[in-house]
Amino acid sequence: VQLVESGGGLVQTGGSLRLSCVTSGYTFGDYAIGWFRQASGKERVGITCSSKTEGPYYANAVKGRFTISFDNAKSTMYLQMDSLNPDDTAVYYCAVAQRRTCPPFLGGPRKYDSWGQGTQVIVSS
Length: 125
Prior knowledge:
Layout: E1 2-6, E2 9-12, E3 17-24, E4 33-38, E5 44-51, E6 54-58, E7 66-71, E8 76-81, E9 90-97, E10 112-115, E11 119-124
Parallel strand pairs: 2-11
Antiparallel strand pairs: 1-3, 3-8, 4-5, 4-9, 5-6, 7-8, 9-10, 9-11
């Protein structure tokens, strides 16, 4: 399984970005997939997860501002991020879990087996 993120960058508070995660090496949709983020000096935390049969689920910190979507023909997942604020500054990762449904409460990083290289998002105040 290979995952490649893109779309990060520098944006002002209140702005928007759309991240992409192009997947390959597995049948897109067969396993739960999600986004994580890791701020400098902090743990990697899950922010959204979705599967063919459920979700998407969002962390409280991003609910109502971030939206996950999919293009099955391109085996690609997107993360639309609106109303960004400096607390959203982090490296964002997409990840695939070796299970068909999302782990409870999005699950920690150990619940996911395949990761992209990450894309940096910086929100200036």
